[in-house]
Amino acid sequence: MADAAAAAGVSEASGFRWVRKAGGMANLAKYRDACPILLNGVADVTVLRSPESDAEPPPGAALSFTERCRIEALLTEGQIPAQIARLLGRHRSTITREIARGMTSGDSYRAIRGQCEYETRMARPKVRRLQANPALLAEVLSGLKKRYSPRQIAGRLRLDFPDDPEMWVSHETIYQAIYVQPRGELARLVKAALRTGRIKRKPQGRQAQQGRGKLKDMISISDRPKEADDRAIPGHWEGDLILGANNASAIGTLVERTTGFVLLLHLPGDHTAETVAAAMIAKMPELPEILWRSLTWDQGREMALHTKITEATGLPIYFCDPHSPWQRGSNENTNGLVRQYFPKGTDLSFHGPGILDNVAAELNGRPRERFGWKTPAEMLDKLLSDPNQSVAATA
């Protein structure tokens, strides 16, 4: 043991402790078998040219004992960390840290020392990131209470605290709280923030559309201005209804394609064409006319009075092809977000205009990845306050 400890650059007591942690001498054979490139203490670098050594490690995977042996062999050959990193398909900093951890008192790297240091480090209990930083935990809880997803929280933290890495956290760390604290407040809020629904997709075959037929004076989406397709020009909207229990109640949903800004329509009593038209005509003047360019809807009978809406607001309305919800992709996604607040099978007429405005404000306050974690409300404010953008939009 004294010779082995000296070769590893540790005391004899440390050598015995490592052997015990590894499960005894018999279990240490796994290290010998995993490290064929060290023969009688001499590095056999020819193994490094084998096809197996060229395989890329899984992203984020810890160094294996075999890789540590290859590091030792390559260092013996005279390779520098950058060259070793390229040969092993690892980041240079990973190799540099490993060499520092596995360095012996004789200033040489030993794979067995690096492996034991790794296993000791993994066995050591750790304070979890959210538990160790109350300020970070408070920010995460605040985001979850606003129904932000873990990914939205992680992205927004980097935007709000660009110079403070202590206030950053990965979305995976937040998700793991479900398993680490299965009954805690964090787990409850994470589950509430996640979108819930079917675990299986609905069949996508053509289904009979009840109460639908070609609307009078309908303008097809194929006639919609091409500027609406790439979202570069603001003011183009998509709309739809989400239905309540027994299709007896509904809420209208509108989303602006460029900013993702959401409006919700209160439809008291029913969702007939008259009710929807009245709600649309009342809602649109809340926004500046720069944002009244077009509206895209499906061919539901609730839009039978679309010409009345256009006459009152000047907003041209275009209609999707039958069975083509992807032609309103932004609105379909928005409906999924709205369902977090208004589940299927509930009476939607119970929710008044004030409640709908509050929900819309929450949705417009959620950070979005496609905007660099800015919110739809921030994007709309920027649009309306930027003269250059306004000129481009009205060109």
UniProtKB/TrEMBL annotation:
GO BP annotations, alphabetical order: DNA integration; DNA transposition
Residue ranges occupied by any Integrase catalytic domain in the UniProt entry: 221-384
Alphabetically ordered keywords of this record: DNA recombination, DNA-binding, Transposition
Entry-linked Pfam families: HTH_38, rve
Example of a GO MF term: DNA binding
GO cellular component: cytosol
InterPro entries per the UniProt record, alphabetical: Integrase_cat-core, IS30-like_HTH, RNaseH-like_sf, RNaseH_sf, Transposase-Integrase, Transposase_IS30-like, Transposase_IS30_CS
SUPFAM superfamilies: Ribonuclease H-like
TM stretches of this protein: none
Family: Belongs to the transposase IS30 family.
NCBIfam families assigned to the protein according to its UniProt record, in alphabetical order: transpos_IS30
Function: Required for the transposition of the insertion element.
Protein name according to UniProt: Transposase, IS30 family
